[in-house]
Structures are given as C-alpha cells and as structure tokens.
C-alpha cells in the first residue's frame, strides 16, 4: 500500500457525505472492527443506458476504508449497474497498491456497501416480465438513511460469523 497515496486520499477524500437526492443507499458493518460504511448512488441515463451519475459515502473510524471509498466513488461515475456490480474490492483499492492482510476487509467493506446499494436499487426497479401495474408503480421515495452515526445505535447485533453485515434501511 502506497503510504503517500493513502495519506493524500485521507487528507482530501472525494465524495464524502450524505447524498440527500440519492436513488439508492447501502450500508454494511464489520463485526470484527465495528466500523461501518454507507454508500449513496445517483443514477442517470446515458446513450440509452442507466449509469451511475454520482456516488458518495460515509465511513467511521478506518482510514483505509475512507481512502478506498473515496477512490471507488470516483471510479463509479459513468458505470452501468452491471459494471458496478462486477467491481471487486481489489479493483477499487488498486490505486493504493496491495492492501496489507489486516486491511483487506476495509476494501471489502466498501464493496459490500456498493453491492448493498445496488441491491436496494434493483428492488426498486421493475424487472422484465413485471406486470404493467407494477411497471407503472411509482418508484419509492428516495431513501433517507440519514447520517451514518444514527445507524450505529440502530444496527442489529453483529452475527457471530461472516465478515460483513448488511444493515437494512
Ligand atoms: Fe475495519 Fe478498516 S479496520 S474497516
């Protein structure tokens, strides 16, 4: 891991903060270290494809997670849902160089928050074969997950196994 890139990313994180007009939000927590990462996504249409217009995040405690999330939210701009879904923690943290073993889960937290947000988006989007009534149903109002700090008190107890837990909004 490049310490200079890490300190630059921490000193000037990109896309940090709640997105009030987001289309989807996902949150994960780590039972191991107690940290949480929340990611917001805003979509737009480009050349007939639904792509990510903007992404933002909040994270507590862990500088590596902040650095990876900062880079990931930049990387996500212009990507389709499918492209975003295929992004791995390794790809998102790649600009920092290989993460040391004890920090690998920090990147996985960011990936988990992204996947949780994409799952939330998929639940709101009518799939092929949906009934016309369902297809015409209005989208749910934008999520108002609020500040991550509020979730620290609401999150369900950590499971005894598994590395991440998804916090349902
Ligand atoms: Fe747990 Fe980084 S130490 S997210």
Map the helices and strands:
Layout: H1 3-11, E1 24-29, E2 36-46, E3 49-59, H2 63-75, H3 81-85, H4 89-93, H5 104-124, H6 132-136, H7 148-154, E4 165-166
FE2/S2 (inorganic) cluster is lined by residues 30, 33, 35, 62, 64-65, 105-106, 109.
Task: Please tell me about this protein's structure.
This protein has 169 residues and is of the alpha+beta class. The chain has one domain (3-127): Sufe protein. Chain: A (Alpha-Beta Complex), CATH 3.90.1010.10. Helices cover 38% and strands 18% of the residues. It has seven helices and four strands. It has helices spanning 3-11, 63-75, 81-85, 89-93, 104-124, 132-136, 148-154, and strands at residues 24-29, 36-46, 49-59, 165-166. The chain has a four-stranded antiparallel beta sheet with strand order 3-2-1-4. β2 and β3 form a beta hairpin. α1 (3-11) packs across α2 and α2 crosses α5 (104-124). It is globular and about 40 Å long. FE2/S2 (inorganic) cluster binds next to α2 and α5. The site of FE2/S2 (inorganic) cluster has 9 residues, from α2 and α5.
